[in-house]
Design brief:
Number of strands of chain A: 7
Strand content of chain A: 15-25%
CATH class of chain A: Alpha Beta
Distance between the termini of chain B: 64 Å
CATH architecture of chain A: 3-Layer(aba) Sandwich
Shape of chain B: rod-shaped
CATH topology of chain A: Rossmann fold
Helix content of chain B: 40-55%
Largest sheet of chain B: none
Largest sheet of chain A: 7 strands, parallel
CATH superfamily of chain A: P-loop containing nucleotide triphosphate hydrolases
Number of helices of chain B: 4
Structural class of chain B: mainly alpha
Radius of gyration of chain A: 16 Å
Oligomer: heterodimer
Strand order of the largest sheet of chain A: 3-2-4-1-5-6-7
Order of helices and strands of chain A: EHEHEHEHEHEHEHHH
Distance between the termini of chain A: 13 Å
Helix content of chain A: 40-55%
Radius of gyration of chain B: 27 Å
Number of strands of chain B: 0
Structural class of chain A: alpha/beta
Chain lengths: 220, 85
Amino acid sequence: MIVTFASSKGGTGKTTLAFNVAVALNPTLCVDLDVGDNRDIGFTFVNGMRQQQTGKTLNVKQITDRESLVKIIKSDTDEQLILIDSGGLDYSLNRVAVGCADIVIYPSNDKALEINSLLDFDGIVTKMSDAAKRKINVHVIASRTNYAKKTWPDLQNACNLSKNMIFSGLSLPMYVDLSDSFGDGKAINEYAANSHANIHMQQIVNYIKQQLQQKGNNDE
Amino acid sequence: MSKKDLDFDAINSAAEKTKIESANTDSEIDKATIKAKNFKYPEFWEKELFEKQVKDKTYSGTWQNFIKEAVRQKLLDSGIDIENM
């Protein structure tokens, strides 16, 4: 199974989500596509921090060419899990990762700028879905929201109007524990298991597990 | 569908061709309709308090008190005794 974390904007929380989900689900492989100019700016950097600070490491591979990505995608089976952390820029490798994913996770907050990007992304997914001849469901997580906010009507409305976006109803507010845990190379469940941030993250992890289970059942 | 059975030529081709700009142009969604909430001041605030007090800067309290006062005044105007609520 392949889970791709994607968005058409940078800084939306893709790597934060991908890293925490990876620690929780222990995937066979984590693919880092966010490697602009061969710099370690995304998942690879966080994994390096993890190795340095905790001695633990995830199986992360940086991919910069299409052949390598396609080879990994072809090697996928239902028994294994591959997480792909795509870059925020408009880059064709990211679109391949979206077109081949079993589920796509899209973090976005409810500001007009990000909702506008979400709808652009929906247009891209429609084209990739047509090319791949398969339905691509994109699950939207309200990301970097105010912790006091419990509903996101604009985000919900945008998803309802879109063709491919499904609003999960879940959020990952901007808790300070999240950024601090990154600095320690830990996922939030390792850094502050009793924190509000971890409660939200656990809900997201469970949601992704459910979606993968459902996808597996539908494919059988 | 196994990943091996995917049409990678078509996927790669679409990934190359599909730019954000083209997807945007083809979007069938009127983005102006996305906004779920269109906040509008109730008429009584606008006329009786907002214009008189806020615009004229004669109101010096907090927004919370401004709203409380507006609600209290509206209830009184409607014949509701707020003290008995």
